[in-house]
Amino acid sequence: MKKNKTPGLIRDVRSKTLLYYLLFSMILLAVLWLSQVVFLSTLYEDIKAGQIRELGKQIAAEYGSGNYQFKLDNFAYQNELKIAVFKVVNGEPVQLYSAGAGSIGGNPQIISTGAEYNKFINSFGGASSSSYVNAESQGRKTLTYGEIKEVDGEYIYFYINASIIPVESTTRILTIQLMAVTVLCFVLAVFISLIMSKQLSDPIVSLTKSAERLAQGDFSVKFEGKGYNEIDKLSDTLNYATEELQKTENFRKDILANVSHELRTPLTMIKAYAEMIQDISGENPDKRNKHLQVIIEESERLKILVNDILDLSKLQAGVEQYVKAPFNLSLAVERIAAAFSGSFAKSGYSFKTDVAEGIEINCDGKRIEQVIYNLIANAVNYSGDDKRITVKLIKEEWGAIFSVSDRGYGIPADSIPTIFDRFFTGKHSKRPVTGSGIGLSLVKSILTAHNYDYGVESRENEGSTFYVVFKPYTVTE
Questions:
Q1: What is the pTM for the complete model shown?
Q2: Average pLDDT, the chain
Q3: Are 221 and 242 a contacting pair, CB within 8 Å?
Q4: What's the burial of 466, exposed, middle or buried (CB within 10 Å: 0-12/13-18/19+)?
Q5: What pLDDT was estimated at residue 321?
Q6: Are 359 and 400 in contact, with CB atoms under 8 Å apart?
Q7: Helix 329-344 × helix 365-381 angle, to 10°
Q8: 200 neighbors 16 (Cβ within 8 angstroms)
Q9: How far apart are the C-alpha atoms of 350 and 386, rounded to whole Å?
C-alpha cells in the first residue's frame, strides 16, 4: 500500500517557511545592532566630519562680506565651534577674526604658535583644505577642519574646531533598548511566521493533494491558488493540464471502443474467408478467387484504418509538423473528384463538379488533399440510395469555399455539434464504402491547425453539405 506523504509535506513546507521568516528577522535585527551599537561611533564621526566640512566651506566663501564677525559668532554658537581666521606673517599667525570658546563677539585668541598651530599648517600638504581628528583630551575628541583662500595676494587660513561628543552612554542606552526590542521582535517574528507559513503552505498542500488525486486518475479535481498570483498561475496551468488530460482520456476510451470494433470486423472476415478457402473452396478456383479477393479488400481496409489512426494520433499529439507552401487548390479538387468518379462510376455513383480555376492557398498541400479526399469519401459512404454527389470550389471576394453535398441519410440535429469529434458512429452507421470511418476526425485536426473555418449543414433524410472556408487565398491567372 502506498504511504501518504502529505502530512510530512505539510510539516516540511511549514517548517521551511517558518525558518525563512525567522532567518530574515534575525538578519534585520543583526543589521540594526551593527548600525546602532557597533558602528554608531564611526557613523557619528563621519556625519559630524561632513557637517564641519560644509560649514568650513561656507565660512571661507563668505569671507569679506558684511557683518562677517556676526556671522562667525552665529556659526560658532549654533554649532558649538571654535573658529579662527588668520594669516601668517613672518612665520607667526596673525588672527583676523575668531569666534567660540565660550563667548560671542569677544574675538578670543583661538590659534597661536605651538603644536596645534604646526599640526594645522602641516595638515594641508599643498592642498587647499584638510581635516583630522585629534586625540582625546579630558575624555573628548575634537575634529579640526581647515581651508586656505587667497585674498589680495595673501593666503587666509580658516580654522574650525568642533568637539565630538562621546556616544558611549548613548550606546549603552541603545543596547538596553535593542535587547528588549530583539526579544519582542523574536516573539513577534515567531508568531507572524507561524501565521504566514500556514497561509503560504495551505494552498501548496492543497495543490499537492489535488495533484495526487489527478495522478490516481481523478480528472474532476480542481486546483485553487487562494489569492497568491504565482500559485494562482500554477493552479490555472494545472487546471488546463487536467482538462487536456481529460480530453486525452476520453479520446483513449473512444479510440479503444471504436477501433476495437473497426479492427474486429476486417480481422474476423479475413479469418473466416481464410478458413473457407481451407475447408470449402480450396479446390474450386472461382470460389477461391472470390474469397481471396475479399481477404485482399479487407486487408487493404485494415491498412487504411491503421494508417488513419496513426495520422490522427500524430496530428492531435502535435508530433507531426505542418510544412506550408503555395498550393493550387483548384487542381487538387478537380484531380481528387475525377479519381472518385472513375473509381465509383461502375457502382452507380455520379459526381457533379463546379470548380473555379486558379485558386492558390498557402498550406500543407498533402494534408489539405487528405481533407478533400475524406470529405468526398464521407459523402460516398452516406449518400444512401441516391448516389449523386456534388463537389464545388467557389471563389468569393473574401475567400474560397469548398463543399461536398450528398442526398443521403443526413445527420440528426443533436449529432451535428459532435460529428467532427468522434469516429464513424451514428443512426445510419454501416461499414464505409471507402476510407476508415475516422476521416472527419482527421479533417478537424488538419483544418484546426491551419486555422480554416469548417462545418456542416444537414437535415435528416435530406442529405448533408460539408464545407471548408479557405482564406486568405490568391487567384492565379
A1: 0.45
A2: 76
A3: yes
A4: buried
A5: 74
A6: yes
A7: 30
A8: no
A9: 9
